[in-house]
Amino acid sequence: MFRSRVLGYLLLAPAMIYIIGLVAVPFFLALKFSLTDATVSNLNGVRGFIGLENFTGLLKDQTFRAALRNTIIYSLVTAVVNSILGTTLAFILLAKFRGKKIVRYLVLLPWTIPIALTIQAWKWMFHPQYSVLNWLGKHTHIITAQYGIQWLGQPKSAMASIIMVNVWRNFPFSAVILLAGLTSIPQDIIDAAKIDGANWFTRYRKIIVPMIAPILFIGLLFNLVFNFTDLTIVFLLTQGGPGNATEVLATYAFKVGIASGQLGRGAAVTLFLFPILFLFSIVFLRQLRKREI
Amino acid sequence: MAVNEAIASLAPKQDTAQRVAPVSAGAVIRRILLLLGILVFVVVAIFPVYYMIITTFKANDDLYNLTHFPLWFTDKATFGHVQYLFQKTEFRRWLINSYLIALGTVVITVLTAVPAGYALARLNLPGAGPLSIGIFLTYLVPPSLLFIPLSQVVSRLHLIDNIWALVVIYPTFTIPFCTWLMMGFFKTIPFDIEEAALIDGCNRIQAIRRVVLPLSRAGIFSIMMFAFTLALQEFIYALVFIHGKESKPVTLGVVTDLIRGDVFYWGELMAGGIIAGLPVAILYNFFLDDFIAGITAGSVK
Questions:
Q1: Which of A155, B54, B171, B241 is least enclosed by beta carbons within 10 angstroms?
Q2: Do A7 and B119 make contact, defined as CB atoms within 8 angstroms?
Q3: Touching check for B269 and chain A: CB below 8 Å?
Q4: Domain count, chain B
Q5: Structural domain ending residue among the three candidates B59, B78, B97
Q6: Which of B28, B50, B78 marks a domain boundary?
Q7: Residues in B 216-235 with any Cβ partner in A closer than 8 A
Q8: Which residues on B lie below 8 Å from A278 (Cβ)?
Q9: DSSP state of B247
Q10: Which among A14, A96, A184 has the least Cβ separation from residue B300?
């Protein structure tokens, strides 16, 4: 028994050292930075420890407030639209039809091709002059403006554009997660309910929804975490512009902490992500616990 | 195009249609709605990819002429953009970098996640439950939270601008999830088999090597694929740690070096995206089911 414990901790050690060294330690380093005026060229800062000055400073910072607001709008709207489209697609993929494998492969392409690469296709489709979306819109008379839509050039359409790209990228993922949940419901339970006279609606309300609820929930959680902390899509499409119409916490942290080298202030921006992530984790843990009991 | 095949293959199975006669009007309508739904989703999902492919092979004069039909070729298709990419840019280098980084990530991930998964799933360690949940939760700590402090760690290690920086950092997001996956795989191997090996005189290490590992080959393979594709997809850390042309992975190189000021090399950009991206998509598809099983593990019974 003792020997297997020693062996156990030995086997566990490399992974633990990795996670402690490169996730936990950096996390506390970020905490430390956020309480100082550290910069890239002066890691200890000029004044060193400055308490919560970075945080109070941010709350007065117009761009930061815009970023906070945009992050919330961006992640919530995307998560909702995503869930709706994902659920629809999951139910479609649940039906029996030929060529399902090919269909699944094709609808999953947005999620399987690296987003940094496909985002360029979107940027090209949003091109101010050559936008194929404008071309399509005009030829189907959906877009009536003479020069089409300046997708990334105006505050509202820029926000709509990043949401659209995020949804395009992530809804297939929501769908496959849900599909896994749906296919895991034993058919005999549904059949039994049918025999007992449960109609379509009752079967949904009493069996299918409660059974897939946990999985739906986990999908939504992952989705929110991804959107909430997304940097790639916004950075590559709009860089937060025009103005700060699409600035989100992650892009702002990048600009402050990396591009202009203010480590302390940048770390403070990222730490605003943490309370919400922490909340997600607690909820997630509770889900897990509930299931184990 | 695969689209046509896909659409053609969506027709309901003929034999079922014949067997279930008479078909009710409701069933026909439902079938049509289903097919329409599939069509819409497939078109939305693949349109940007389709447009990438068209742009890749389109000559510039064709591309930048507003009177031309954008969804197909007006002039002759060309390999010019692909040629430019391979001859005039570091594209080949970026591809090699990407695959090297991904390989390194796979090696580190397998060497850490497999033993950890085994220990947590099999050895009845005190505190294994909270530890495994803790490991999984680090998966929810995103790069956006860590890139600032990690940039300091990387510069302290003198790895800025070095592909090794990414080899060292990428396992931070592959290890948690892969450990979680491996735990699941190890739990599916009946304990009796291992026990039998122990009784037959193997020690624990021999039992692992001769019995457990061969049985979990599928699991190990799928975490390798997982780590590999995740490493190929990464962008943020690369953006923060790598600046030199020579050390960029392809996701970074394509988007930073094919844009000169305001001039975008659209043909080359799309070519790079397709050449680098499609293999990843194909790989991903192979182990997708394992990946989903991993994420949903425990949430469905």
A1: A155
A2: yes
A3: yes
A4: 2
A5: B78
A6: B78
A7: 229, 232-233, 235
A8: none
A9: G
A10: A184
